UniProtKB/TrEMBL annotation:
The gene is miaB. This is tRNA-2-methylthio-N(6)-dimethylallyladenosine synthase. SUPFAM superfamilies: Radical SAM enzymes. Residues 410-473 form the TRAM domain. The lineage of its organism: Bacteria, Bacillati, Bacillota, Clostridia, Lachnospirales. Belongs to the methylthiotransferase family. MiaB subfamily. InterPro entries: Elp3/MiaA/NifB-like_rSAM (IPR006638), Methylthiotransferase (IPR005839), Methylthiotransferase_CS (IPR020612), Methylthiotransferase_N (IPR013848), Methylthiotransferase_N_sf (IPR038135), MiaB_methiolase (IPR006463), rSAM (IPR007197), rSAM_horseshoe (IPR023404). [4Fe-4S] cluster 2 binds at residues 191, 195, 198.
Length: 476
């Protein structure tokens, strides 16, 4: 029988076959080096990419690599983002710096994956000017890492494997969690919304939801391993379930997840205002485990600009939604994304954005200068806003957002709230750092053994965007 016939066709069996095979090559590399081969994955961009990197690291550890810093690594992978122009520039810069390192260490391998690789222009540029890259793959075939590495070990050529789109979801591959007590869980992939500024639908493909039983059994397993907080991930979680054979909505999925023993906190992102249902608001209000926080990107405050962005809702619709949320969940923390300088944005439009910010009073907001992404509809709009005007508006917006966030953050001073302890404080080892249900950071004195636990902390001093506190002792 030829080896080809022995390669399983179905996933995940096929990848387990290649994981085995890759292990042999990594072992041989280790023998040649006289030590365990080391790998480093650098992640750019959003939580989706972080999750993908955990999957990549899971496979790398399974085949015998040990995680290390970039300087020490025999395999360096950049998991890239392409949402804004400067994200691409940073990757080229980092790659340029790796070239001399690889010259000195000929066994070294460099891999590139993620959203930026889904752009044809990028891959062409890499083929022409960055020949020292070993492996290029995209967002749809992250699960194939072992197979692609085997291909690279068996040939001296650059391996390029980019798919335009997929309807495939491969379950049950190894993954390496960054934290033992919290974890991201993909519930859907891709996006169908085509906001006119956004490259995501082109690089992450069409929306597809994971089957509820796959999600639930993953979360049950995580809970049995000690995970207490999960973050459900999708570009547009509110439309979860569309296209699945079973009758399920995001709200129903949340209820089923909340019933899993051991899971104490549930977060999710990102919510599109156009699909945020009353059913979801009810479930959020009812289920204790769902965190008191909603990230609800507004993007712009002018209905005219929202229409040009293809956001589907109006300013009034968004504000009504916020009102409804605050009525049902009075103390909810709201955060948002805002783009400044979208093509055609006038001073009046911008003032409407500022007015929305003042009315909603966000607990925090990510503000972005509009960045032209080629191949998106907005890139060819003829009324691009001059950079100096956009920058000036951006600074005004940032000032407003920060002032409001400071004021909002203070409202918890003196209260005792539950904190999930995440790590030893990075500046002072006597302190721990954790998060409130609403995502605010809290630093307080305490010992390492509390990491992963939810403890009551008195929020004594507000420091703008975070709190200093003291842990309550039993009986206090
Ligand atoms: N320019 C600026 N910001 C953008 N975002 C997405 N595309 C662009 C772009 N072309 C922002 C949106 C989105 C967040 C993740 O990134 O606000 O919600
Ligand atoms: Fe981009 Fe809009 Fe989809 Fe978000 S919802 S990923 S902004 S297209």
């Amino acid at each position: 029988m030829s080896t080809l016939q022995m390669v399983p066709v179905n996933e995940p069996d096929r990848q387990y076959y290649f994981i085995d095979k890759a292990r042999t090559y990594v072992r041989q590399l280790g023998e040649a080096l006289g030590r365990t081969p080391r790998a480093c994955i650098t992640t750019f961009g959003c939580q989706m990419n972080s999750k993908d990197s955990e999957k990549l690291l899971g496979v790398l550890e399974e085949i015998g690599y040990e995680e290390s810093s970039e300087e020490m690594a025999d395999l360096v992978i950049f998991n890239t983002c392409t949402v804004r122009e400067n994200a691409n520039t940073r990757v080229y810069g980092r790659l340029g710096r790796l070239k001399p390192v690889k010259k000195k260490n000929p066994h070294m391998m460099i891999g590139l994956c993620g959203c930026m690789m889904q752009e044809e222009l990028v891959v062409n540029k890499l083929k022409d000017s960055y020949r020292f890259v070993d492996l290029i793959f995209g967002t749809h075939n992250v699960y194939k890492l072992a197979e692609l590495l085997v291909m690279r070990f068996e040939s001296k050529d650059m391996i390029i494997d980019i798919w335009e789109d997929t309807d495939k979801i491969v379950e049950d591959l190894p993954t390496e969690r960054k934290y033992p007590f919290k974890s991201g869980v993909n519930i859907m992939f891709g996006c169908n919304n085509f906001c006119t500024y956004c490259i995501v639908p082109y690089v992450r493909g069409r929306e597809r939801s994971r089957r509820p039983e796959a999600i639930l059994s993953e979360i049950k397993r995580l809970a049995s391993e000690g995970v207490v907080e999960i973050m459900l991930l999708g570009q547009n979680v509110n439309s979860y379930g569309r296209g699945l054979p079973e009758e399920i909505t995001f709200a129903k999925l949340l209820e089923q997840i909340a019933a899993i023993p051991g899971i104490q906190r549930i977060r999710f992102m990102t919510s599109h205002p156009k699909d945020l249902s009353d059913e979801l608001i009810e479930v959020m209000a009812r289920e204790e485990k769902i965190c008191n926080h909603l990230h609800l990107p507004v993007q712009a405050g002018s209905s005219r600009v929202l229409k040009k962005m293809n956001r589907i809702y109006t300013k009034e619709g968004y504000l009504t939604l916020v009102k409804k949320l605050r009525e049902k969940i009075p103390d909810i923390s709201l955060t948002t994304d805002i783009i400044v300088g979208f093509p055609g944005e006038t001073e009046e439009d911008f003032l409407e954005t500022l007015a929305v910010v003042k009315e909603v009073r966000y607990d925090s907001a990510f503000t972005f200068l509009y960045s032209k992404r080629s191949n998106t509809p907005a890139a060819t709009m003829t009324d691009q806003v001059p950079e100096d005007i956009a920058k000036e508006r951006f600074d005004r917006l940032l000032k407003e957002v920060q002032e409001i966030a400071h004021e909002r953050t203070q409202r918890f001073t003196g209260q005792v709230l539950d904190v999930l302890v995440e790590e030893v404080n990075q500046h002072d080892p006597q302190y721990l750092t954790g998060r409130l249900s609403n995502n605010l950071l809290v630093h307080f004195p305490g010992s390492e053994d509390l990491i992963g636990q939810i403890v009551p902390v008195k929020l004594s001093e507000c420091k703008g965007f975070y709190y200093l506190g003291e842990k309550l002792e039993q009986g206090e």
